[in-house]
Amino acid sequence: MLVIMRHGASDEQIQTVISFIKKKGFDTHVSHGELHTVIGAVGGKVIDPRDIELLDGVKEVIKITSSYKLASRIFQPQDTVIEVNGVKFGGEYCGVIAGPCTIESLEQMEETAKQLSQKGVKILRGGAFKPRTSPYAFQGLGEEGLKIIRDVADKYGMAVTSEVMEISQIPMFMKYVDILQVGARNMQNFNLLRELGYINKPVIIKRGLSATFEELLMAAEYVMSGGNRQIILCERGIRTFEKTTRNTLDLCAIPVIKKLSHLPIIIDPSHGTGLRDKVAPMSRAAVAAGCDGLIIEVHYDPDTALCDGAQSLYPDQFGELYSDLKKIAPIVGKKIDNEQTVEV
Amino acid sequence: MLVIMRHGASDEQIQTVISFIKKKGFDTHVSHGELHTVIGAVGGKVIDPRDIELLDGVKEVIKITSSYKLASRIFQPQDTVIEVNGVKFGGEYCGVIAGPCTIESLEQMEETAKQLSQKGVKILRGGAFKPRTSPYAFQGLGEEGLKIIRDVADKYGMAVTSEVMEISQIPMFMKYVDILQVGARNMQNFNLLRELGYINKPVIIKRGLSATFEELLMAAEYVMSGGNRQIILCERGIRTFEKTTRNTLDLCAIPVIKKLSHLPIIIDPSHGTGLRDKVAPMSRAAVAAGCDGLIIEVHYDPDTALCDGAQSLYPDQFGELYSDLKKIAPIVGKKIDNEQTVEV
Amino acid sequence: MLVIMRHGASDEQIQTVISFIKKKGFDTHVSHGELHTVIGAVGGKVIDPRDIELLDGVKEVIKITSSYKLASRIFQPQDTVIEVNGVKFGGEYCGVIAGPCTIESLEQMEETAKQLSQKGVKILRGGAFKPRTSPYAFQGLGEEGLKIIRDVADKYGMAVTSEVMEISQIPMFMKYVDILQVGARNMQNFNLLRELGYINKPVIIKRGLSATFEELLMAAEYVMSGGNRQIILCERGIRTFEKTTRNTLDLCAIPVIKKLSHLPIIIDPSHGTGLRDKVAPMSRAAVAAGCDGLIIEVHYDPDTALCDGAQSLYPDQFGELYSDLKKIAPIVGKKIDNEQTVEV
Amino acid sequence: MLVIMRHGASDEQIQTVISFIKKKGFDTHVSHGELHTVIGAVGGKVIDPRDIELLDGVKEVIKITSSYKLASRIFQPQDTVIEVNGVKFGGEYCGVIAGPCTIESLEQMEETAKQLSQKGVKILRGGAFKPRTSPYAFQGLGEEGLKIIRDVADKYGMAVTSEVMEISQIPMFMKYVDILQVGARNMQNFNLLRELGYINKPVIIKRGLSATFEELLMAAEYVMSGGNRQIILCERGIRTFEKTTRNTLDLCAIPVIKKLSHLPIIIDPSHGTGLRDKVAPMSRAAVAAGCDGLIIEVHYDPDTALCDGAQSLYPDQFGELYSDLKKIAPIVGKKIDNEQTVEV
User: Fold this and answer.
1) ipTM above 0.85, yes or no
2) Nearest-CA neighbor of C310 among C271, C344, C337, C283?
3) What total of structural domains would you count in chain D?
């Protein structure tokens, strides 16, 4: 931590700051610049920079250690690669997850999975417990839904991912699901994150609507500090003043996260835009920017979807998009779904 | 719901929209304007407006029923007034809650409660389970902390409020606490909200960092739909581009919520600004704007606070502020802590 | 400027950074901390911190000199007080400006000014050139409007403020107007700001919709660097995700600006909220927070207003509000419009 | 315009609204729904929806005509294609503009232009008048800079684009420049926009930091309403809570604008991210999303750049990127710089 004193701060003010910091268990070293005296502080435990900012004569306090360690690229320079059902996320791999927003019925999952599987998709998504803004809206099929998606996935040789909403559901999810998702609204549900640190399955953490990149990495740190290192980060749009799209999809998350962390970063263009005709352009853009994966909503018949049909692709639209992605990926040195891809 | 067709939409397009809406179980009535045909739809169940927006010829879809009912001023025109330990929130009353961010020790709570009690405060706050961004930061004393705050409050004739973080903690909180708080990060933890609908104690719901007023009211609706009508809403700052303050405290929440809802709206100037020297001006402003209560962080010795000391008032600062608030409140027709207040 | 090297940065990396900084004309002093080496740099000219951030081994670069000097409270510790027509802004004074959004006709200004003047208002506002989002909307009466407001103000012994939109209009404004306003959309029209530095009349600078406090102070610095020190800053709401109100009025601007700068800070609750029934609560809040002035839209007949009638007060509403403000101000040590105010 | 009355609104309230609207010159037609009465209003002139929202019994007011006409895809269904020096923007074409942030010297422009020209770039950018946040920062070479960029461009057969900051500079820009740019800070400088409607050269309008897509299109409408139809829209990042990147580049601007408008939309990844290592990924993403052009900062020696060196590419980096873009473009049916591009 560095404390920058105001130009003209008195010796007494400087001494007060030094005493305050020392009382908190830090060692200090002082450097007198031309305009500003700077006090460095090391070795102490937790201190809130604002406590020092309120002292007289202090101009600014700078924290110089990141709050995340295990998630940091400095801690682990090489990319983490996570493999599920033969699909890899991270490094030179870009994995694709697809499926409906919500598990509605056996027929719906069966038909959707069949079509996705034929196109080559190996990981199926679908919500069983839905975080709905209204208490009066459909809340998902619950465990019955998880059974359906598991059965259907097994039939087509696919893996399963679904969103877990609270601690008590974790054992149930461990039974049916291969990758657990933490939704944007739960990204700072720290109790849930902590518990997910004790399981041995991959976890997708979605960026909160107003979470900074640092907070997203701190959420990963919560899980990792419990022992689970299989974390996939997911950008799904942030909330801004612009309301034409449901959210503002921040694709710069890709190069930013890849510089700060070794963890894979995937993109959810369906929630990120909220409208079907924006999903394909943003998916192509995400792959061109070097993302490590995509999670896309596809429904065999979006017009009848109980939830988010408007942002779900028709299977044929997905097919065309999937084919485009395989052409774009090698240009940026990536492979889609670990397959042999078209060389250009 | 109203569907506005584009200028020049064809008859076929209009018919397609009507069929689509009818298939979803709605009755329709069509009105041909000079520029736009408008299709009204009533009586159906859930429909996602975006599904219709994607149909050809559609310009815009407007939902005309609010998603919240029980929380709405239309459902209940008169103000809800909630009373705890003789302190009232709502109507002509403005209640004050004060105490430290975190319960640190018996001594800390004892000293703080004593000083607050002497000044007239009747509701004590203090966190036992802390939602911390870092897994390595102090996470609170847990149930031990709740015991401490309960004992101290009883000694000084005060009521207690504290933040509950997950469903499994509810029975424990029912034992020690008079008002349960839902933190900003949990405002859309819908499972937690639903369970709080089954208890018979007041619940403070804090606005999420990027939650709209409508979403805040929907969170209240979740609790109310379970039967618990004792909800206090709390504005505590939203996240914007401005970083000088920790958050942007949106005091317009007061007249906005009071128009839309009958529920009391209180202000948390401590989290809303994040800096001690901003707390008093924003508290005075909140009362002048007609708020139904305040929740203010006060610590008997903020310099030693384990958490958020920088935004905690010294007891003497609080005392002066409290006295100012009692002068401002009657100008806007309110009473602070239900006391006889100075007439001007 | 301080350059913080990453934990584990090599000597070579450190040397490269030092050479780079020296080449830019800075003196450097190096301090080896336990975890991080910190390089201080002083005395050089302009350098973009990002240039250094891109060098290998650099963790972070911190600028430690504010960009504004003349506007800073360090440069001038005592409050700037600006007086116009006997009304003072700053220090212990809170001045009130009122009038319609737009100058529509002699009758409208005459009737509005008469009523405001009777209530004690001494500064009249009204737009002659209107920045309208649509090219097809009413653009204001131009110079004809300025003549009207000047004549009416003279008749009732009032001063005049109006918004200047471009450099070529300055001489015209100098002829008719006592305080020139720079609108939110022009807050970073640097050419206009620079020219306003050469005039000898007060200038109100409104905060841009997405301008930080630092940028607002830099805008003041532009004008002040030309010689004109009579600057009044104005908070009028920022753009956020919340759309219930037109903008989010950031009242914390008051204590923030008063700490950073000696310049008066006034509030525009009319644009800040966009709805008449929010104007009075936010005005009372602003005065309770210690603002140095208010600029409020009042129209003798808002229902017929050509522009922003929905956010304009009726004269009687203003009268009641004005009377409330005079009761609140002394509680926070301020005087409204420099008058003898009611003691409480 | 549609006025939706509250559930339970009285006949008297409905009649009051109808009278109010008729007084403003509108025809009304009333439709009684099951829950809500809806009043349609057509044919009148300007009305502020908020005026009606404030009437008793009104729930909501909906505007159903867009504010922009000439810029709308409904007005002109086919894409506008703008050609400058053989480079096309719009339709199946994606044009590339490159060059330094600021014109610093003949040598700098000469060296940069030579290298860009060799790689195939045909439009050179460079600022002569710089909008700088600080009055003390370098403000550009002015007309001398425009002469330099014109001479250098002519030598290498390139066209020139540069930012115009105020009306009085327009004649000077017409002399030296082929495409005039309006910067983000001037996007709502309506006087400047209006004047640019009278020239016969293309204008690039950059999206303001907090401008909505609708406001960007309204800015185009201002210019177009004067007669100039050669408008290129430019997304360059918006201001959000996330500070890791300088701005949040909203690539969804591409499909959004292409649906709403026939005008070309180009991307500025340099200002949009503010850091060199983010420019290439975001450029690739923009082309994959189907943008109509790119404007990229390139400097022959970014380490010595007077301005924004940190976000400028080295010429070799640009060369590699340019080659990647030519591979990505045909996958989405576009041609970079109108050349024969590599088929995949």
Assistant:
1) yes
2) C271
3) 2
Whether residue B69 is contained in a domain is answered as no
- Residue C335 Cα, gap to closest chain A Cα (Å): 29
Angle of helix D276-288 versus helix D315-328 axis, rounded to 10: 20
CA distance D209 to chain C (A): 7
The pTM assigned to this predicted structure is: 0.88
Q: Quote the minimal CA–CA distance from D279 to chain A in Å.
A: 9
Number of Cβ atoms within 10 Å of the Cβ of B97: 31
CA-based nearest residue in chain C for residue A244: C241
Determine the pLDDT at residue B45: 61
CB contact under 8 A, A54 and B276: yes
Question: How does DSSP classify residue C167?
Answer: G
Question: Above 70 in pLDDT, residue A241?
Answer: yes
pLDDT by residue (tens digit) across A139-165? 899 999 999 999 999 999 999 999 999
**pLDDT for position D122:** 97
D237: domain range?
Answer: 82-336
Q: What is the rounded distance in angstroms from the CA atom of residue C35 to the CA atom of residue C109?
A: 67
Cα A216 from Cα A260, distance rounded (Å): 11
Compute φ and ψ for A232, nearest 5 degrees: -115, 125
pLDDT in tens, A13-35: 999 998 888 888 777 777 776 66
Overall average pLDDT of the D124-137 stretch: 89
Q: Which of D29, D33, D241 sits opposite B40 (nearest CB)?
A: D33
pLDDT at residue number A128: 96
Please tell me whether residues D58 and D92 are part of one structural domain: no
**Are C210 and D239 inside 8 Å of each other by CB?**
yes
Residue in this structure with the two tokens 């070293």, named with its chain if needed? A29
What integer pLDDT is reported at residue D343 of this predicted model? 42
Inter-chain contact A331–D332, Cβ cutoff 8 Å?
no
Separation in Å, CA of D286 to nearest CA in chain A: 6
d(C-alpha A235, C-alpha A256), whole Å? 11
And the tokens for B114? Answer: 């004593």
**DSSP states along C247-260:** SB--TTHHHHHHHH
Neighbors of chain D with 3 or more C-beta pairs under 8 Å: A, B, C
Residue D341 has pLDDT above 70, yes or no: no
Q: Can you tell me the distance from the alpha carbon of D251 to that of D238, in angstroms, rounded to the nearest whole number?
A: 11
Task: Please indicate, yes or no, whether residues A199 and A266 belong to a single structural domain of this protein.
Answer: yes
Task: Examine the domain organization and report whether A188 and A317 are in the same domain.
Answer: yes
Nearest to B42 among D33, D40, D240 (CB): D33
What CATH number is associated with residue B8?
3.30.70.1140
Which residues are CB-contacts of A25 (< 8 A; sequence separation ≥ 6)? A43, A44, A45
Q: Are residues C87 and C210 in the same domain?
A: yes
Which chains contact C through at least 3 pairs of Cβ atoms less than 8 Å apart?
A, B, D
* pLDDT higher than 50, residue B69: yes
Q: Which pLDDT score, from 0 to 100, does residue B34 have?
A: 63
Quick one: closest CA in D to A343, which residue?
D344
Q: How far apart are CA A65 and CA D307, in angstroms?
A: 29
Query: How many angstroms separate the first and last alpha carbons of chain B?
Result: 50
Question: Are B48 and B86 found together in one domain?
Answer: no
Separation CA B215–CA A282 (nearest Å): 27
Ranges under pLDDT 50 in chain C? 340-344
Beta strands in chain D (DSSP E): 2-5, 27-32, 37-42, 58-62, 82-84, 87-89, 93-99, 123-125, 159-163, 179-182, 203-206, 231-235, 265-267, 293-297, 335-336
Kindly report the backbone phi and psi dihedral angles of residue A93, in degrees, each rounded to the nearest multiple of 5, phi listed first. Answer: -110, 145
C306 and C200 in a common domain? yes
Question: Which helix (H) or strand (E) covers residue B163, if one does?
Answer: strand B159-163
